[in-house]
Amino acid sequence: MTTAAPLVRRRLERGIAVLTLDSPHNRNALSTGLLKELTDALDEAAEDREVRALVLTHEGSTFCSGADLTEGRVRKGPRQLVALLKRIAALPKPVVARVDGHVRAGGLGLLAACDIAVAGAKATFAFTESRLGLAPAVASVPVLARGDRRAAARYFLTGETFTAAEAVRIGLVSAPLEELDGILDGLRAASPQGLAAAKELTAQPLMERLANEGPLLARRSARLFGSADAAEGMRAFLERRDPPWAL
Question: How far is residue 247's CA from residue 243's CA, in Å, rounded to a whole number?
């Protein structure tokens, strides 16, 4: 009996746990399996005394495309995403997102939950939910906690694609990819206690918002996923055609 290949690969590089999303066949979508493996990898890194910080990166041209629309349990996804975002925010070690590909929908929530995010020239970003009859409900919590609310209103509503430079401008990304080595050197130079205490200061507002708003937004997202508009929007997406409301 063959063992399925992992959806999240792990390696240790001089005190940095590198977690690589390795499900390129579905653009690293947040499937049930990937969510579980990523949560397990975060828990393992949290307990490992050799790990000073984490880097979350990706295999293939997409960092994360959001919900796995091919799964029959897609309506349970929002609640699972809330749990994952809480885990990242509560982790006593900083998490750095390294992106050099596309980020879509719920993948932007995953990105924004990380303490630091860097993006390369190949990175593109879009909140595509409105075009599917949905909304970035759960993802909005870390995105609005980190970034520019006026810019978020534009991109939530229009679903436009924007660049890494724009993501830096609006606060969704911390810095260009070429600054990653300096960031990691800084994390390696800090004490574990110092990192945990500093992260607690910066992540506290996000943790409070996830606790207060996460369950409500997960239920709202599940209702949207169960709507007729969303069913047609997801069908159109999977069939690579425009939905009937597109003008």
Answer: 9
